[in-house]
């Protein structure tokens, strides 16, 4: 008998809680599952991972580059970058490339570093990608990644 009363009391509390929850969400307006049409709160800013996004294609890297303010209107996927899974040229001296592994990406960046004193170096390096452009510093805040720059000294 005591057990039956405890179960009945627990069920009554659960029902009362659910009714209270339904009445609270019902007063919020809209469908009760998100912001109402009158909610003017700004959308939260996208947080870019420190090492940037992972891109599955050079096209998706191109889109991110353009969203960050880069000009890639004359894009041509050339797949000429050694070790890259895909690469392309924006027609403005900008080269975009994505890699299947971190070691392949690192091999390309390390190869570029060997000649940096002679030709200079301006790259933005992310999780599986590299953007080679003289203005890479302006794209980093929106794309993430690490700046690797060197001024030619010879």
Explain what you see.
It is a single chain. The protein has 154 residues and is of the alpha+beta class. The protein has helices at 2-26, 58-67, 102-114, 116-119, 136-143, and strands at 76-77, 86-89, 95-98, 121-125, 129-132, 146-150. A 6-stranded antiparallel sheet has the order 1-2-3-5-4-6, sandwiched between helices. Residues 1-39 have low confidence and may be disordered.
Q: Reading side by side through the largest sheet, how are the strands ordered?
A: 1-2-3-5-4-6
Give the % helix. 25-40%
The tally of strands reads 6
Radius of gyration: 26 Å
Spell out the helices and strands N to C: HHEEEHHEEHE
Helix/sheet category: alpha+beta
**CA distance, first residue to last residue:** 94 Å
- Count of runs of 4 or more consecutive helical residues: 5
Give me the oligomer status: single chain
Q: What general form does the structure show?
A: globular
Summarize the biggest pleated sheet: 6 strands, antiparallel
Which consecutive residue ranges, at least 5 long each, have pLDDT under 50?
A: 1-39
What is the mean predicted local confidence, pLDDT? 76
Strand content: 15-25%
């Amino acid at each position: 008998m005591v057990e039956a009363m405890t179960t009945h009391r627990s069920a009554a509390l659960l029902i009362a809680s659910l009714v209270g929850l339904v009445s609270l969400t019902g007063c919020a307006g809209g469908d009760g599952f998100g912001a109402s049409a009158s909610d003017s709160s700004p959308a939260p800013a996208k947080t870019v991972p420190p090492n940037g996004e992972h891109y599955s294609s050079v096209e998706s890297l191109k889109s991110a580059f353009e969203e960050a303010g880069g000009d890639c209107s004359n894009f041509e996927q050339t797949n000429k970058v050694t070790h890259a899974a895909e690469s392309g040229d924006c027609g403005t001296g900008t080269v975009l490339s994505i890699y299947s592994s971190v070691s392949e990406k690192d091999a390309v960046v390390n190869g570029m570093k060997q000649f940096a004193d002679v030709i200079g170096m301006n790259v933005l390096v992310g999780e599986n990608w590299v953007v080679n452009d003289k203005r890479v510093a302006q794209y980093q805040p929106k794309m993430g990644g690490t700046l690797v720059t060197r001024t030619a000294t010879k």
